[in-house]
Amino acid sequence: MATAAIIREALYKAKKYAEDKDKAKNASEDDDVDEPEFDIKNESLEKVVRGELAAHFHAHRADDIFTAIRIAKEFGLKYKIVHCTEGHLISDELAEEGVEAFAGPNFTDRSKPELSNMCFANAGILDKAGIKIGITTDHPVTPLKYLSLCAALAVKEGLSRESAYRALTINPAQMLEIDDRVGSIEVGKDADIAIFNGDPLDIFTETIHVFINGEKIK
Questions:
Q1: What is the extent of the structural domain holding 200?
Q2: Region class of 83: left (phi > 0), else alpha (psi between -120 and 50), else beta
Q3: Same domain for 157 and 196?
Q4: Same domain, 177 and 215
């Protein structure tokens, strides 16, 4: 509850800060309205409360996920849920809310009570409910080099291979609003491409070629 209160207070201050800036900007010469005093914290959140950037709520438990959704609705925010560890317990409700989630990390131990319901089936259950997912390792909690392994373990527990590939490529690009540059192979994008000698989700598969911005580096 304290965390939710701190978040609400920060968002309220940022919203008021943005409103005061707008008032000053739109005021006539006869109006006695000054710009608010510069505040770096409010500056950082201004684009979030204006809806120009999505808020990322890090939540594991179902109740905390619902709290994040309530706060997002209260302030009219674009948002994503990061971790969404107990999402499999409330997948239908999350689908109704139009939630998008970065699932993970799962390749780790249950180091705190919030992780008691952690499972690799989570991604597949969310995906089947119609929720757009990306798979995250929360690097360095789980090193990024194990990302494909995490996806493979999710497939083992019910996520389709096609959905797993999307959760590693176009889905997170769209969720981060950078899909105009990366996430799929299309004319005009960054041409960051990896070529494998087998299924990328197979632990024995090797990377044989890597291109960055169209330039071969391997």
A1: 188-218
A2: left
A3: no
A4: no
Per-residue burial over 133-149, b = 16 or more CB atoms within 10 Å of its CB, e = otherwise: bbbbbbeeebeeebbbe
- The reply to whether 36 and 125 lie within a common domain is no
Indicate if 173 and 216 belong to the same structural domain: no
Pairing state between β 215-216 and 207-212? antiparallel
In order along its 218 residues, the chain shows pLDDT tens digits of: 999 999 999 999 999 999 999 999 998 877 888 899 999 999 999 999 999 999 999 999 999 999 999 999 999 999 999 999 999 999 999 999 999 999 999 999 999 999 999 999 999 999 999 999 999 999 999 999 999 999 999 999 999 999 999 999 999 999 999 999 999 999 999 999 999 999 999 999 999 999 999 999 99
